[in-house]
Amino acid sequence: MSKDSVSKKEILFKSVWKLHAEGTNWANIRMGAVAEASGIPKGTIYEHFRSKDQLLAETIVWSLKKEAEEVMRKMAEASGFVAMLDVIFEWVGSPQGRTLFLMRFMDGGKLPEGLKKELCCCEEANRRGLDTAEQVTEILIKAGISDGCLETEGSQMARRTALYSALAPVVACSMFPERYAGISWEEIKEHSRRIFAAAFQRI
Asked: How far apart are CA 174 and CA 192, in angstroms?
């Protein structure tokens, strides 16, 4: 693939993601809007992608890669388990987190059928998402044990369940902000930390 092709694809990915982040759901993204946002004619777009669904699916894969790199960088810079957990909270609360982290669980039914098929065929998307989730979980568990926040006994499943449960308030606030309008983001995160602490009987 030529450098020019790579450059055009990245411009298109950024344009598609911008349209989605600004509020256009996946089903309503139109190639005309992508062409206008990117400055790349529709005919040229179809030289790189056989369909809109392929473009959307590859945009999601590209976004996963970028987000995975950013989350892992911030995790590496964080000092201790609580700071690492806060990195995850902040990411889940971001537009990227809402789309990428929750797509499989919350938005699956809303995705266009063609896009779902493209994503199912795109092994890299599934592999990258699962690999990143596993890496983040392992890093959190090791930091939690090292900092004395996690019990070293008990099953790995129990520890993972506690970590995922701790995300529930953050996820709920992120997905349905209107229902939690009177609660600050800091309060939501503190509630998540308390759920985590209670799961391990730590005060």
From this structure: 13
The count of other CB atoms within 10 Å of the CB of residue 130 is 11
Q: In whole angstroms, how large is the CA radius of gyration of the chain? A: 19
* pTM of the complete model beyond 0.70: no
Q: pLDDT tens, 158-201?
A: 777 777 788 888 888 877 888 888 889 889 888 888 887 777 65
Extract the tokens encoding 122: 């795109």
Residue closest to 66 by CA, chosen among 93, 95, 40, 46: 95
Q: Are 72 and 60 spatial neighbours (Cβ–Cβ below 8 Å)?
A: no
Q: Give the Cα separation of 115 and 176 in Å (integer).
A: 24
* Cα gap 182→151, rounded to integer Å: 34
SS3 content of the chain, % helix, strand, coil (to 5): 80, 0, 20
DSSP string, 55-107: HHHHHHHHHHHHHHHHHHHHHHHS-SHHHHHHHHHHHHTSHHHHHHTTIIIII
The tens digit of pLDDT for each residue in 28-59 reads: 999 999 999 999 999 999 999 999 999 998 88
Opening angle at CA 16, ends 6 and 25, nearest 5: 155
